[in-house]
């Protein structure tokens, strides 16, 4: 199996009644236990700590190389204006290195970070990503995510069977996110933890969130939540989310497994 793995197989994240654990930028944002985010070693550390999936960010350099980095700038320089061999970028992993180094059993959440130069260049960030992806035999479960709905449309135009996920920012209303995901025919809606309320949310707000979550079930759209801390996990599990993208991989693994044990 390759070419983008595979929406025809059903739900992308939830299997066997428990949610998937996704390592954020690998083993977590920043540097954790000596592992720098968006590096191959960070990805490997996440899988060793129990992550089912890993999330990484890809963005273009000036010479059309794709690099793993979250922000558009590094040390005050715009990444899209530097060639990949620039000294400021020498420590960044390439998308090629990531695909070659990730274990075959781990799921891949590839977040696409378009740049302004996409509006001027012959090939967009998505075009470059697809070229590299096709050069590898990728058997991993894979989903392409982005805040940019245009990028998700582009993915589907190149890879019709690809799973896609619509990403939203903090406090983005869940119902609006679900509507957009449905319009995209996306496999997942990927929302910040603040979109699912808090322990102190009003009854009306809790009902609104529960209605949107129920609609995801009806539409066969998985709910992935990012930005959750360990204290948030029990509430999110009670709400029935399908995946958690976290910085605290080991702690969240224990919480998911404990919840599964107590319910069996």
Task: Report what the structure shows.
This protein has one domain (18-263): Phosphatidylinositol (PI) phosphodiesterase (TIM Barrel). The protein is globular and about 50 Å long. By secondary structure, it is α/β, with parallel strands linked by helices. The protein has an eight-stranded parallel beta barrel, surrounded by six helices. A two-stranded antiparallel ribbon has the order 2-3. A two-stranded antiparallel sheet has the order 6-7. The chain has helices spanning 40-48, 95-101, 125-135, 149-158, 174-183, 203-219, 233-239, 249-263; strands spanning 20-23, 31-32, 35-36, 53-60, 66-68, 73-74, 77-78, 107-112, 142-146, 163-167, 188-192, 222-226, 243-246. α3 (125-135) runs parallel beside α4 and α5 packs parallel to α6 (203-219).
CATH superfamily: Phosphatidylinositol (PI) phosphodiesterase
CATH class, anyone?
Alpha Beta
What is the succession of H and E elements? Answer: EEEHEEEEHEHEHEHEHEHEH
Catalogue the unreliable spans.
Answer: 5-9
CATH topology: TIM Barrel
Q: β content, as a range?
A: 15-25%
| Strand arrangement across the biggest beta sheet | 1-4-8-9-10-11-12-13
Distance between the termini: 33 Å
- Strands, total number: 13
- Radius of gyration of CA atoms, rounded to a whole number: 18 Å
Tally the helices: 8
- The computed structural class is alpha/beta
Sheet having the most strands:
8 strands, parallel, barrel
């Amino acid at each position: 199996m390759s070419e983008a793995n595979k929406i025809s197989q059903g739900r992308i994240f939830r299997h066997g009644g428990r949610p998937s654990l996704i390592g954020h930028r690998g083993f977590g944002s920043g540097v954790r236990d000596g592992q720098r985010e968006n590096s191959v070693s960070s990805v490997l550390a996440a899988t060793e700590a129990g992550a089912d999936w890993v999330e990484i960010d890809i963005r273009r350099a000036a010479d059309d190389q794709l690099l793993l980095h979250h922000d558009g700038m590094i040390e005050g320089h715009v990444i899209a204006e530097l060639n990949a061999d620039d000294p400021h970028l020498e420590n960044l992993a390439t998308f090629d290195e990531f695909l070659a180094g990730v274990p075959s059993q781990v799921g891949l959440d590839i977040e696409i970070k378009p740049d302004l130069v996409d509006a001027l260049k012959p090939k967009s960030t998505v075009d470059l990503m697809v070229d590299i992806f096709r050069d590898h035999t990728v058997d991993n479960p894979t989903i392409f995510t982005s805040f940019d709905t245009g990028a998700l449309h582009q993915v589907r135009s190149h890879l019709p069977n690809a799973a896609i996920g619509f990403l939203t920012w903090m406090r983005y209303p869940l119902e609006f996110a679900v509507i957009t995901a449905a319009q995209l025919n996306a496999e997942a809606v990927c929302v910040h933890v603040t979109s699912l309320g808090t322990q102190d949310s009003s009854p009306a707000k809790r009902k609104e969130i529960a209605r949107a979550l129920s609609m995801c079930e009806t539409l066969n759209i998985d709910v992935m939540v990012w930005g959750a801390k360990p204290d948030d996990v029990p509430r999110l599990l009670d709400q029935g989310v399908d995946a958690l993208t976290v910085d605290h991989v080991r702690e969240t693994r224990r919480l998911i497994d404990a919840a599964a044990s107590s319910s069996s």
